[in-house]
Amino acid sequence: xxxxxxxxxxxxxxxxxxxxxxxxxxxxxxxxxxxxxxxxxxxxxxxxxxxxxxxxxxxxxxxxxxxxxxxxxxxxxxxxxxxxxxxxxxxxxxxxxxxxxxxxxxxxxxxxxxxxxxxxxxxxxxxxxxxxxxxxxxxxxxxxxxxxxxxxxxxxxxxxxxxxxxxxxxxxxxxxxxxxxxxxxxxxxxxxxxxxxxxxxxxxxxxxxxxxxxxxxxxxxxxxxxxxxxxxxxxxxxxxxxxxxxxxxxxxxxxxxxxxxxxxxxxxxxxxxxxxxxxxxxxxxxxxxxxxxxxxxxxxxxxxxxxxxxxxxxxxxxxxxxxxxxxxxxxxxxxxxxxxxxxxxxxxxxxxxxxxxxxxxxxxxxxxxxxxxxxxxxxxxxxxxxxxxxxxxxxxxxxxxxxxxxxxxxxxxxxxxxxxxxxxxxxxxxxxxxxxxxxxxxxxxxxxxxxxxxxxxxxxxxxxxxxxxxxxxxxxxxxxxxxxxxxxxxxxxxxxxxxxxxxxxxxxx
Amino acid sequence: xxxxxxxxxxxxxxxxxxxxxxxxxxxxxxxxxxxxxxxxxxxxxxxxxxxxxxxxxxxxxxxxxxxxxxxxxxxxxxxxxxxxxxxxxxxxxxxxxxxxxxxxxxxxxxxxxxxxxxxxxxxxxxxxxxxxxxxxxxxxxxxxxxxxxxxxxxxxxxxxxxxxxxxxxxxxxxxxxxxxxxxxxxxxxxxxxxxxxxxxxxxxxxxxxxxxxxxxxxxxxxxxxxxxxxxxxxxxxxxxxxxxxxxxxxxxxxxxxxxxxxxxxxxxxxxxxxxxxxxxxxxxxxxxxxxxxxxxxxxxxxxxxxxxxxxxxxxxxxxxxxxx
Lengths: 509, 324
Fold this sequence. Notes:
The complex is a heterodimer of chains A (509) and B (324).
Chain A: H1 2-17, H2 19-31, H3 34-57, E1 75-77, E2 79-106, E3 109-113, E4 119-125, E5 134-140, E6 145-149, E7 153-156, E8 168-175, E9 178-184, E10 191-197, E11 206-212, E12 216-218, E13 221-223, E14 226-241, E15 246-250, E16 267-270, E17 274-279, E18 283-285, H4 297-300, H5 304-325, H6 327-334, H7 338-374, H8 384-412, H9 415-433, H10 440-449, H11 482-506
Antiparallel strand pairs in A: 1-18, 2-3, 2-8, 2-11, 2-14, 2-15, 4-5, 4-11, 5-6, 6-7, 8-9, 9-10, 12-13, 14-17, 16-17
Chain B: H1 2-12, E1 19-28, E2 31-41, E3 46-50, H2 57-64, E4 72-77, E5 80-81, E6 92-95, H3 107-117, H4 122-131, H5 147-159, E7 165-169, H6 177-192, E8 196-201, H7 204-207, E9 213-218, E10 221-227, H8 228-236, E11 239-243, H9 247-256, E12 260-263, E13 268-272, H10 276-285, E14 292-295, H11 300-313, H12 318-322
Parallel strand pairs in B: 3-8, 3-9, 6-7, 7-8
Antiparallel strand pairs in B: 1-2, 1-4, 4-5, 9-10, 11-13, 11-14, 12-13
């Protein structure tokens, strides 16, 4: 009884001021083995090396310029436009009575199909220049009426499909920069869908009807589609217009480059009363699949996986080497409160790896970006806050992976076993998700539940509801938010560290 | 039951320097590594922990250092369990395995992290390096050290906290004769400074000129715990060997005088309980011819062999017979 009280009191005293000494000891241990410092430098150098290689090896000089939207993001801006210039405020209405899409099933074999984001409707746009500001109201293949502007904004209107029996009437009102979209089933009762402020429309914006038809998802790839809409009762009220409608392809002139299936092209037929318009393409933010040549910060930091190997080895050996030489007995004799030793090791390792990773990423990111840009690569833009998140997240990913390796090392007490386990847990999912033929469901599952989920901190691409695409880790889209993905790895590390602490305390040294 | 034992031990030895090991029991699967190990290590004395390999010497030392848990029993350092010590290296300095160091770290850096863990600084490191004579090699990688240099480095680590208790597991192993002589002198000087010194060995010859007190272990328990002189006397008994051609005559004379006599060879008899000069006088007075009358004196090796043989035979009473 007495001794129990005594030892608890002693323990509390140690608890208050002993940790810094253990931390100091573990730091001295870490820094006095040259191989560990070299491992950290190697990790930083690998980040830099891969960034340079990625930057140098990319070559996009002479490629057509990527259309840039008003928010300075890359966009897709390619569609068939029946238009005329209109100045001053006013209103335009139309009735859409059909929207049919076709998808090729083979060469020359075009079949009717559903393209959910096929678009037909009214648009007001600064000019036919790609990337110019606009606002539009439209019917879609499967998402009802939508009001969209500035490429990224999307507002849902009344749902439902259009047909000859139930045409949909659309209206755009302009009042200065304010554009308001309406929809109606009968032409008498109008429902307001949304209002957009569109700056930079200029004195004589182009106004008219359009048809766009983005590539349809086809298995693990996409297939170009083409859509045809029937418009009636196209009327412009107010504003000054000359009344002559012109049909034009916005974007690449060549049907193939504009995304039309073989043997099709954009067209408009009929009189003023009734127009049949065929078009392909999309008016939307660019995503990985629509801008495959675009570079991302994640690709520049592709050396992360190589750096991971280095820090995992250093992390595991930080404790398994002590088991191999039995020096762990000296360590634990010097610090009988064992979980403290483990926490001190984890703290030192995390801090050192984070510092090394931060130096590597801070140098690698801007250097790689510069090299890639000088080779004509368009990089998906990131805000400085996002860049900071990617750089710090990469360092934190490396540091936390090293701590996971340390914890596993403390559990298995065997260098090769610990290194292999952690590599399999982190690097293998990363490699598997990078395989193009990996099914999206499997890749997304891996990127959710394995420690490899932490690669989400490097995500800079944004997925858009209004753009159908394969948002898979392979394309640079992770199912979890950046820090949520990191939290998965952190949870693995914390759980393993706790398990290691319990085992360290229970086992004989 | 266990808790009561803990309480009593700590009360009895509260504040006492040295090591008190009481009733340690530890089982690895079906093998019993420690089976009621009990002994005390006192300050100012070199205590030898001797016994055959596998007798539980190293396990006991690991238990004392809080490295291995026991199923039963206590090991206390100055009345406290090791795991409750703050800066334990200032209480107990130990060397379990001279090879237990990172080959890529210099000897000095090895001592430096250890010093930092105890709130000590580099000056103390330089002092112990000089004390064990490792200064020329201190900044070289420990992977290149000879076994003797590693032993010295391990001793330096044990001395780092200037502890009142020093515990060394097989410190003579692999040492050359010069090293053994140095080690003996060193251990004696540590005891002379008032420290409690515990040294294990599987060879009695290694500790016989060094230890003042011996704990002989076999099969996981102490089978003898006594001073070196007491141990020798206990095993020798006060027997006298008489070599004579007239054995039968000599025995008759001695038995008539009241001595306990046994014939132990063709021309030797052994007499118990009488000093040698009295036997010689008696034989001369009765005109019994003899060529030798000598007191039997056991060597420490004899003691060790006899005790450990008994341990192997597992006689339960041995402990109480031999200890004081």
